[in-house]
Amino acid sequence: MSKYSRPYCENCKLIWGVGAIGQIVHCTECGAPLIWKSFNPWPRVGGGIALISVGLVTTFLWVIPIVWIGAYIWGGSLIYNAWRQWSKINKIDLYK
After folding, report:
1. Please, are residues 86 and 41 in contact by the beta-carbon 8 Å criterion?
2. Which of 27, 75, 80, 90 is deepest in the core (most CB within 10 A)?
């Protein structure tokens, strides 16, 4: 079990904090069995950095502007959303 894995309900899309590990095996909303899902932010951060790097390369090559503008926006949003999701999960851990 990694530090990024949490109990998760596929039906309700609910995430439980680390305090629920070993205590809750079924979803409290729908009764479905919980699965372990990894919410590791690093793969998305790496993908965002790779996209921004592609954007930098195409900026200096003066290729189609949509490529580097899109790479900056998409890469930045991947990094931002990965850390935002992980910070919300950390808040769940504090309350449960």
Report:
1. yes
2. 75
In a structure prediction context, what are the per-residue pLDDT tens digits for the chain, which is 96 residues long?
Answer: 678 888 899 998 888 888 778 888 898 888 899 988 888 888 999 999 998 998 888 888 776 777 788 889 999 999 999 999 888 888 888 765
Instruction: From residue 45, give the alpha-carbon distance in Å to each of 1, 3, 36, 52, 54.
Output: 21, 17, 21, 11, 14
Nearest to 45 by CA among 17, 84, 7: 84
Size of the chain in residues? 96
pTM, two decimal places:
0.72
Instruction: Single out the residue of 7, 32, 33, 44 nearest to residue 22, CA to CA.
Output: 7
Give the Cα separation of 96 and 93 in Å (integer): 6
Rg (CA), the chain: 18
How do strand 14-15 and strand 35-38 relate by DSSP bridges?
unpaired
